[in-house]
Specification:
alpha+beta; Uridine Diphospho-n-acetylenolpyruvylglucosamine Reductase, domain 3; Enolase-like, domain 1; five-stranded antiparallel β-sheet; four-stranded antiparallel β-sheet; 20% strand
């Protein structure tokens, strides 16, 4: 049986207290919300903080406020199940509700938070094992070792960003509010992630993700399609988030297609956006955009399924996502 290591636990009730506790606790401290990622990692000795600071008693981090006209602000500690069922989220940003509902199982969605999913640790078949298994292969580059077993000749860790909400937030152009004792800053969701499996976030360890700011939808259509072995529980081995804004004449004014589950960070397929923008949203353009997604996807052998097949699946999954958005537009004409 895997057990948690010993650690100090704090549960502040205000945001100010939380960031002060983190600053006072030094390098061996971490924030935790639902704990569905951190606690299993601690049991496997992938992460071993001496102090854990829970943010679940901070009421303001659970709030969901705003509307379709001004945009929506979601507290980072809002449960995934709450986000999935919230009427304003479902009305104005159905893709956020959709993606939240595809994460894990109902039990885990009642524990996990939207902020926790956005900050999810990168995953890999050689990393997400118990301590004894990892010691048996002499560990890996991401934790305690000096070789990336996925790409032994590489100096880079290729662990995969497996968040369902990360590609969605990048595609929507969301902004994230980070808070520390030094103040707060608002960054674009796309600027949070690094293409590095170890140092995967542009966020200081003492910064707390407090809010997710969603811009007004302004008539955009969005969807998210997820590939996984089982219809529930599993992490994505491919995710396609697609957002389009279509004029009355049927031309694409704006397009954003982002892939998840194929790299250490969400992959923006700018080539697919360029194929669509300024053109009629027809089958030919959709096929070209899907082909661009296939060419851009470069998954490695570090998750479920054969990597070549996962790359092949980028084409039909992008195709289905864009065809769904085109069908929606046609129904509204």
């Amino acid at each position: 049986m895997m057990r948690l290591p010993q650690f100090n636990y704090h549960a502040p009730r205000t945001l100010a207290d939380a960031v002060k506790m983190r600053a006072d606790s030094g390098r061996d401290a971490m924030f935790v919300a639902g704990g569905t990622d951190l606690y299993p990692n601690m049991k496997r000795r992938q992460q071993t903080p001496k102090t854990v600071i829970s943010v679940m008693r901070i009421q303001e981090l659970h709030e969901i406020r705003g509307d379709e006209k001004s945009g929506l602000i979601i507290g980072a500690s809002a449960l995934l199940s709450e986000v999935n069922k919230h009427p304003r989220v479902r009305q104005a940003y159905p893709v956020v509700a959709q993606a939240s509902g595809l994460i894990a199982t109902p039990l885990l969605r009642n524990m996990g938070t939207i902020g926790g999913n956005l900050l999810l640790d990168t995953r890999c078949n050689y990393y997400d094992q118990n301590y004894e298994w990892r010691r048996g292969i002499n560990f890996c580059l991401k934790k305690d070792g000096d070789i990336c077993w996925v790409a032994p000749g590489s100096s880079k860790c290729w662990a995969v960003q497996s968040s369902d909400l990360a590609p969605v937030m990048v595609a929507l152009g969301a902004k994230l509010k980070l808070v520390s004792v030094d103040g707060e800053r608002l960054i674009e969701a796309r600027d949070l992630y690094k293409d590095d499996g170890i140092d995967y976030l542009h966020k200081r360890p003492d910064e707390l993700l407090a809010e997710i700011h969603l811009p007004p939808p302004n008539g955009t259509q969005a969807t998210y399609h997820k590939l996984r072995r089982r219809g529930a529980f599993d992490f994505p081995v491919l995710g396609v988030a697609a957002v389009v804004q279509i004029t009355k004449s049927g031309a694409v004014e704006k397009a954003r297609i982002v892939l998840g589950g194929v790299a250490p960070s969400p992959v923006s397929v700018n080539e697919a956006d360029a194929v669509l923008e300024g053109r009629q949203f027809d089958q030919e353009r959709i096929a070209l955009a899907a082909e661009a997604c296939y060419l851009k996807a470069r998954p490695l052998d570090n998750t479920d399924f054969v990597m070549g097949w996962r790359k092949q699946m980028a084409r039909p999954f992008a195709l289905r996502a864009l065809e769904e958005l085109r069908a929606r537009w046609e129904l509204k004409r």
